[in-house]
Design goal:
The complex is a heterodimer of chains A (418) and B (285).
Chain A (H helix, E strand, L loop, with lengths): L3 E13 L9 H17 L11 E13 L3 E5 L6 H8 L7 E7 L2 E4 L12 H11 L4 H15 L14 H13 L5 E5 L7 H17 L3 E5 L3 H7 L2 E6 L2 E7 H11 L7 E3 L13 E8 L5 E2 L4 E9 L3 E11 L5 E6 L7 E3 L4 E8 L7 E10 L5 E14 L6 H5 L16
Parallel strand pairs in A: 3-7, 3-8, 5-6, 6-7, 12-19
Antiparallel strand pairs in A: 1-2, 1-4, 8-9, 10-11, 11-13, 13-17, 14-15, 14-16, 14-18, 18-19
Helix pairs in contact in A: 3-4, 3-5, 4-5
Chain B lengths: L16 E5 L7 H7 L1 H18 L6 H20 L9 H28 L1 H6 L6 H27 L11 H25 L3 H15 L13 H4 L3 H13 L8 H26 L2 H4 L1
Helix pairs in contact in B: 2-6, 3-4, 4-6, 4-7, 4-8, 4-10, 6-7, 7-10, 7-11, 10-11
The chains are: A alpha/beta (418), B mainly alpha (285).
């Protein structure tokens, strides 16, 4: 018999729409109760029938993972990836089906869960370790290693609110990386942090999977890191398993299936389900080039629409342009250009980014959008939230059109030296 | 604990299988709660630390508030309303009543805000949710101990020496904690479900300050005494006074029995309601 560590059978999760987006108020419950009283008394209607206002985030999901395997979970936003991870992490209960986990589970759905800005690095390591399920003795034993991994020795007793965002993320990941679970569940956490550190984390994670015989479940929009890290992949589409098999093959199928229309106008108000709405600032839309086609080597304008739910200070916006495999090709962050803004609660507005000369080769690209505040916390993050198509422009050399792909097409000086 | 309904043999590794199914969360609950006791300690420690880090006056707040309340209530009930004191210095009556009241109100409001305040934890990490209101209770207990350490010398200054009855005080502190936990579980679960309760909590506490005999003695109000005993805190307040203030007060056993009964009911129903709504917390928070 194979050494099965995770067995998922017929898993399903039903959400009631509106439940999460808007909290119940007493008034609603009372009036709803009164209105439904006659119906309740008659006790009509069966439970099993699908009612309007309900949706299945997961439906009939089954798969097995063996010890030491790394499984990548891919799929579009709203495909049910996060719900699956939440059920496996025991944060929420399934509606149907069962999961059998053999081994100690640690899940990392976010970097730095429970970090408190007022506490020092040292205190946050202790707290975060306890939150992730480490015992006090275990944290103490690994403390020095965690500090060294995060490279924050000098700032151990500084409150983390004074940390740079890079330091913050490094510290948070370092704690998580030193968990010693038999099953590690990771969600998209590598999307943050600088490149060198991402490499370090990926290295640590593959060591965990391959070398130490642990099982890893990894959700990412970056197909590159999924194929690099995982031997197998599970593709979820609309809550169901679309494909399950060798990572490279599933990823290739996934890229081929992305037939979504490239657009220039995006509405994100209802994007990505429910979790975004708890935030302090919501990215509401994106308009590219005012509706005109996007062209290589021409001006590129991106207008990000947003609404501040609460007062926010020092907001920076960012746009990431990625290949369809999810590899980031270019990043534009307003704070790196020295621009941050503050808004009162309820403020709605637009921030426009302008590039005089778009270097992206003709082709289709996936967009990431994000906003973060001065205290380094992410306000809103929309990975792979839309596709844009870059067309050849008047200044595109004819050759570039015939050679597709190529990411950024830059012009340089070519000189013959003898 | 291996899953008996699963016929597959357990693999070589000495690990236990964890089965996740709808409605099965209960199976490991109390064992998990014990396993997560360190987290409880850390959360309480974090809340205490942050509170005192952020406030300029720090620990002084734990003292200033009850001091001012003692002076105010002494003035209103003792001086203006001229309620009988039965030979006990009035400020001491008030202080002894405030001790359990502070414990209750701080645990109650702390618990009410605890899950919403820790929403990011609830939606990202698994742990028995009971840890969060329990941590709020632990914070309230620490505050009580600070206050008690200061109240004892004050009592002695007024010429009321401690007696053997003080030894029974821990039992009544536990009773106050159980009442606070029962009420706290209700308010925690209700606050997650209905955010209205964030406004209802301070309102309830305001009422509680007057229907709990903090500023007066129930033994001089024969008409009201039994009615007031319907508030479980009445028995606790009387017991605190009996422990701290020496021979001038009678024990009022029936009030205490009432307290015990109501505490059991509150705790039982509180746990039942909390456990019932808990599994949906992550979906609605």
């Amino acid at each position: 018999m194979s050494d099965q560590v995770i067995a998922v059978e017929g898993l399903a999760k039903r959400y009631r729409l509106g439940l999460a987006a808007r909290h119940d108020t007493l008034r609603d419950t009372l009036s709803h109760g009164l209105r439904n009283l006659p119906r309740l008394l008659r006790r009509s209607g069966s439970e099993a029938a699908a009612r309007p206002g309900e949706f299945w985030a997961l439906r009939d999901v089954s798969f097995q993972v063996e010890r030491g395997q790394a499984l990548g979970i891919i799929g579009r936003n709203g495909a049910g990836k996060s719900t699956l991870l939440k059920i496996l992490s025991r944060i929420t209960e399934p509606t149907e089906g069962r999961v059998t986990l053999r081994g100690r589970v640690a899940s990392l759905l976010e970097v730095g869960t429970g970090f408190h800005p007022e506490l020092s690095g040292r205190e946050n390591i202790l707290l975060n370790g306890a939150i992730l399920g480490m015992s006090r003795a275990e944290i103490r034993r690994k403390f020095d290693e965690i500090v060294a991994f995060a490279e924050v020795e000098k700032f151990l007793d500084t409150p983390v609110k004074h940390y740079s965002s890079g330091m913050y993320v490094r510290l948070a990941f370092a704690v998580a990386a030193h968990l010693e679970p038999e099953i590690l569940i990771v969600d998209e956490v590598l999307a943050v942090g600088d490149y060198a550190f991402q490499r370090k984390c990926l290295g640590k994670m593959s060591a965990v999977a391959a070398g130490e015989g642990r099982t890893v479940l990894f959700v990412s929009h970056n197909l590159g890191s999924v194929t690099a890290l995982c031997s197998r992949a599970l593709w979820l589409a609309e809550g169901r398993v679309r494909a399950y098999g060798a990572a490279a093959a599933v990823a290739a199928d996934y890229v081929r299936s992305q037939t979504e229309q490239a657009r220039t106008d995006f509405d994100f108000r209802a994007w990505g389900g429910t979790e975004r709405h708890a935030g302090r600032l919501l990215i509401t839309g994106l308009q590219v080039n005012g509706g005109a086609p996007v062209m290589h080597r021409e001006a590129f304008r991106a207008r990000i629409g947003f609404r501040a739910q609460t007062a926010v200070e020092g907001v920076a916006f960012g746009i990431g342009l990625c290949s369809l495999e999810g590899t980031r090709l270019a990043t534009l962050d307003s704070d790196l250009d020295g621009r941050r803004w503050s808004y009162p609660a309820g403020h709605e507005g637009w921030i426009e980014l302008e590039l005089a000369d778009l270097p992206l080769s003709p082709g289709r690209y996936s967009l990431d959008l994000g906003a973060r505040s001065g205290d380094v916390t992410s306000l809103d993050y929309l990975p792979a939230c839309g596709l844009v198509e870059v067309q050849p422009g008047p200044r595109t050399p004819a050759g570039a059109v015939q050679i597709p792909g190529g990411g950024l097409r830059l012009s340089g000086e070519w000189i013959e030296r003898s | 604990m291996t899953d008996l309904s699963n016929p597959m043999p357990v693999p070589a590794a000495p690990t236990e299988a964890l089965v996740i199914e709808a409605g099965r969360a209960d199976r490991h609950y109390w064992r998990d709660l014990w396993r997560y006791r360190e987290l409880l300690g850390f959360l309480a420690w974090r809340d205490i630390k942050i509170r005192y880090k952020q406030a300029a006056l720090g620990v002084a707040w734990a003292v200033i508030q009850p001091t001012v309340q003692t002076i105010l209530l002494t003035f209103v009930f003792g001086k203006l309303a001229k309620m009988p004191d039965g030979g006990v210095p009035y400020p001491l009556l008030v202080l002894a009543g405030l001790l359990p009241w502070q414990l209750f109100s701080s645990a109650f409001s702390g618990a009410g805000n605890s899950l919403v305040g820790n929403a990011n934890l609830i939606s990202k990490v698994y742990f028995p949710r009971l840890v969060v209101p329990l941590a709020a209770l632990a914070v309230a207990l620490v505050d009580l101990l600070v206050l008690l350490a200061l109240a004892l010398p004050v009592t002695a200054l007024y010429g009321v020496p401690p007696t053997w009855r003080l030894l029974l005080l821990p039992a009544f502190i536990v009773l106050a904690l159980l009442i606070a936990l029962g009420a706290g579980l209700w308010i925690t679960a209700l606050t997650v479900k209905f955010r209205d309760f964030r406004f209802i909590t301070p309102f309830l506490l305001q009422i509680g300050l007057f229907v709990t005999p903090i500023g007066y003695r129930t033994d001089f109000l024969p008409n009201w005494r039994d009615l007031l005993a319907l508030n479980p805190l009445t028995g606790v307040v009387n017991a605190f006074r009996w422990c701290l203030l020496g021979g001038e007060l009678d024990f009022y056993g029936s009030g205490l029995v009432m307290s015990l009964l109501l505490a059991a009911v509150l705790l039982g129903t509180g746990l039942w309601y909390f456990r019932g709504t808990e599994r949906k917390f992550a979906d609605i928070i």
